[in-house]
Amino acid sequence: MGSFEEQLRELKQLTNTAKNVDLARVLGKSPKTISNWKHRDHIPEDIFIKARQISQNSSMATPNGYVELPFYEVEVSAGHGVLVEREDLSSAIIFSEGYLRKEIGVTPNSVLLMPIKGDSMHPTLKHGGVMMVHKVEEFTDDGIYVFRFDSRLMVKRLQYSKAGLKVVSDNGTYEPWELSKKDVQAEDFEVIGKVVWTGQRM
């Protein structure tokens, strides 16, 4: 094995990721785990085995003009949020690359799919549906975002406010609340991405 940086580079090549946070999500680990690997100057061998499995699965033939999007089986709550301990890459769903680029306006490697849990974003996001999340590192404009706060992963509508950010549920039975500027700048707040598409059973 080479140096830690060489090992990390190999993992990113195998999983087709560029950032540590994306690598962590694909491997089902927290970003803190990668920091621990760096501190110990060692990456466990089972991590490379998992990365090679992911690489082999992603190399399976996909029809020309189509791409596989990863689907994360995590407890993303549209209600009050659920504590998330793992984010396991469980399957992939195929989309037309042209549809992603022209209709939704995203690149295939910048999006992922997640399940919708709860009813607080009804009727925009319905429980049991699937949402496509465009990965971004910070809030840029009003919209529906998946974000982590207070160790919980949530999906809500975020809007600018004088205090910081206003957190709004589309279901009127849920009261809006505020994230202060201090909250937004804290380590415990992280924007995962912006919801750009949703699909569901009728």
TrEMBL record:
Bacteriophage CI repressor N-terminal domain: from which residue to which, for each copy? Answer: 8-49
**Keyword annotations for this protein?**
DNA-binding, Hydrolase, Protease, Transcription, Transcription regulation
Task: Spell out the GO cellular component terms annotated for this protein, sorted alphabetically and separated by semicolons.
Answer: membrane
Q: Which InterPro entries match?
A: Lambda_DNA-bd_dom_sf, LexA-like, LexA/Signal_pep-like_sf, Pept_S26A_signal_pept_1_Ser-AS, Peptidase_S24_S26A/B/C, Phage_CI_N
Peptidase S24/S26A/S26B/S26C domain: residues covered: 70-196
Domain of life of the native organism = Bacteria
Q: Which residues cross the membrane?
A: none
GO biological process terms on file: negative regulation of DNA-templated transcription; proteolysis
- PROSITE patterns with a match to the protein in the record: SPASE_I_1
Q: Name one GO molecular function term.
A: serine-type endopeptidase activity
What is the recorded name of this protein?
Answer: Helix-turn-helix transcriptional regulator
